[in-house]
Design a protein that fits this description.
Shape: globular
CATH class of the largest domain: Alpha Beta
Strand content: 25-35%
Distance between the termini: 25 Å
Radius of gyration: 23 Å
CATH topology of the largest domain: Naphthalene 1,2-dioxygenase Alpha Subunit, Chain A, domain 1
Helix content: 10-25%
Number of strands: 21
CATH superfamily of the largest domain: Naphthalene 1,2-dioxygenase Alpha Subunit, Chain A, domain 1
Structural class: alpha+beta
Length: 420
């Protein structure tokens, strides 16, 4: 629900109340407690559906990727089988448990364990055992790679670490699936990937990328005047939607922003094609199918910069005028996490496009680094124990709802109850 109270007045919002969420302070213990971290690992990451890859990463039969799930100490092979199916397996040999695949990605007709050369097909079946006669009635049909529950939705590959997932991926996604169904993921085969291990709780990092209250303070020289303006000096959100366990927010963009005439490089980069944003690397024409989707700028605001679609528990699928990008946050300790961001850009077809893309990546990386420079400081303050609660405002609705869901999953005895 948006309200505009006169020309030049700050945008007023009422998202938290409209969503039926509490206005109470939120606890900080989940951001520092070792016991709570262990509950998150067991109750969330070992029960929820986790997004690990896109189908473009393993486009052809025989292609594979190996993905880490650092929260749970897992290495997962995702394989495009000869039969066309996408499957996931524990990266562990049935002989003595050794990792079978050392590469992060590749193409193979079979997987061969480097320890004793046990050989597996791309569908996980055990094909060959050297000196098989010396084993004791080995049943190769039961000794294939151990499967992991795996489903594909809209090109995203998910796994579930439960032996028998309590709910299907469709049930887990709930209204989030309909919200993003049919989105055109342009350039999904061409990501620029950045990753880091950060000295902060995973929720501290995720929170930094779903609220806008900090933008004028943390980003004054980069996006401070593009995500805020005189009409909206505190960069208040323009939309927020609760989607079951998941959520989406739309961020404000200053429609009157222009590069200063002394910013020669930026003006050259954005002079030949309309992008609709200074954090974009594709033209409006090239992104028309993407931008037409109802989940992209859902309120069809002329003061829009981007959307954050927070897929519980650990993934953001962000949409902007130039396409989409993702953030993932993997907890590894109460005050440490692994972070990865993937920017998807079209393959450049001209020198000017390449120049614009290089500038775009440099600009958004600078913005990301500004956010990340603050997370360790935030964690140190939380760990100090001086505060027991967070005082959240309306544009921090994404943080409030995410933490409510985390606490709900930690307490719920079943996944069905966590999703209820």
């Amino acid at each position: 629900m948006n309200e505009q109270s006169g020309a030049g007045a700050a945008l007023q919002t009422n998202f938290t109340r409209a969503a039926g969420l509490s206005h109470a302070p939120m606890p900080l213990a989940p951001y520092r407690s070792a016991a709570f971290f262990e509950l998150e690992r067991a109750q969330i990451f070992e029960r929820a559906w986790l997004m690990l890859a896109r189908v473009e990463e393993l486009a052809a039969p025989g292609d594979f990727v190996v993905k880490s799930v650092p929260t749970c100490g897992k290495s997962i092979i995702i394989s495009h089988g000869k039969d066309g199916g996408i499957r996931a397996f524990h990266n562990s040999c049935s002989h003595r448990g050794s990792e079978v695949v050392s590469l992060r990605a590749g193409h193979a007709a079979r997987f061969v364990c480097p320890y004793h050369r046990w050989t597996y097909g791309t569908e996980g079946q055990l094909l060959g055992v050297p000196d098989e006669a010396s084993f004791f009635d080995i049943d190769k049909k039961t000794c294939g790679l151990k499967p992991v529950a795996c489903e594909v939705w809209e090109g995203w590959v998910f796994i579930n670490l439960q032996r028998e997932p309590e709910v299907s991926l469709a049930a887990f996604l709930g209204p989030f699936a309909a919200h993003l169904q049919g989105l055109h993921y342009q350039a999904a085969d061409h990501p620029v990937v950045l990753s880091a291990t950060l000295e902060a709780n995973w929720k501290v990092v995720a929170d930094a990328f779903i609220e806008t209250y900090h933008i004028p303070v943390i980003h004054p020289q980069t996006i401070g005047t593009t995500f805020s303006s005189r009409a909206n000096p505190f960069a208040r959100l323009i939309d927020a939607t609760i989607l079951g366990a998941h959520r989406a927010v739309s961020m404000y963009g200053n429609p009157d922003f222009r590069f200063d005439e002394t910013h020669f490089v930026h003006n050259i980069a954005y002079s030949a094609a309309a992008t609709g944003s200074v954090i974009a690397a594709a033209t409006k024409e090239g992104a028309v199918n993407f931008l037409d989707h109802p989940a992209v700028n859902p309120v069809r605001s002329g003061s829009w910069s981007m959307d954050v679609n927070h897929l519980f528990p650990h993934t953001h699928i962000d949409c902007g005028p130039g396409g989409f990008w993702t953030h993932q946050f993997w907890p590894v300790a109460p005050n440490r996490c692994h972070y990865e961001v993937r920017f998807y850009v079209p393959k450049a077809e001209s020198a000017h496009e390449r120049f614009q893309q290089e500038l775009y990546i440099g600009r958004v990386v600078e913005i990301v680094l500004e956010d990340l420079s603050n997370v360790a400081r935030t964690q140190r303050g939380i760990d100090g124990g001086g505060q027991e609660f967070m005082q959240l405002q309306d544009s921090e609705i994404g943080i409030r709802h995410a933490l409510e869901q985390v606490m709900k999953w930690v307490e719920a005895p079943t996944v069905a109850q966590a999703l209820a």
